Amino acid sequence: MPKPVRLCVLAAALLLGLTGCATQHSHAPAYWLTPEPLPVPQRTEVAIARLTEILHRAELTEQQSAQLHYDRGVMFESVGLTSLARFDFMRALRLQPDLAGAYNFMGIHYTLAGNFDQAYEAFDSVLELDPSYEFAYLNRALALYYAGRIDLSLYDFTEFQQRNPSDPYRAVWIYLAHAELDPERARSKLVTLRSELDATNWGTQLADFFLGTISEADLLYSVTNNLKSPKQLAERLCEAYFYLAKWHSMQGDTERAMHNFKLSLATNVFEFLEHRYARLELARLRDEPLSMEDNVF
To answer: Cys bridge to 145: 37, 38, 129, 153, which one at CB 3.0-4.6 A?
Structure first.
């Protein structure tokens, strides 16, 4: 097993004594935590090598081969090797066209490449094959959101939220979508949803931040509360900086927004949607078209 990765914390001493009274830190510097990129876990590298060997040497049925390509694609995805992941998902679907999980990942890739119609079709396929695959609602909502079809995205965001009302991230995305249309209504909606959120889930701090009950500095200090591992710190930083960036973007502060999106990317938490969409958000802020490399489907 690899040794746990260290997270570089500019105010490292705070990790020892900080217990999280948010109001005590309202005048703290805004950017006091700098993430150190997570390394690729050795066990993931070994698993990819083993799956590759099996795919090349073993006699497999098409269904077995499809599943192994899918499994390897998920591993490639988890370490940021998105092109290799995409090719594996496409191979899996050629071998087994009813593999819902592969359609889900392909839909995410289409969204990130700006191929929104193909993304909708992929997520529709997921839900036709497996109506219980609830994250397809979130991912289709995100595709609609980034395509500018906010009204339609709200149907899927709401469906996703209703399946687990205590999850703060579901409430936050409903807020962000509503905020594109009517900021006051968005806040009112989040106030209503806040009463159902799990107080023990760190993500509830994000809802409180958007409601204005805690400050930006308070939110950043809260990431160190009740940590179980350095990896968890990286994950929280990935989320915190992404949603701070969204907030700064909503305030019209493009420079601060871009800085925070870059900090989110710096965590290397490739599996999180916040990491996936931070680069798309940066492209939008820069008013850049997606590169041809992003459209190799």
So the answer is: 153
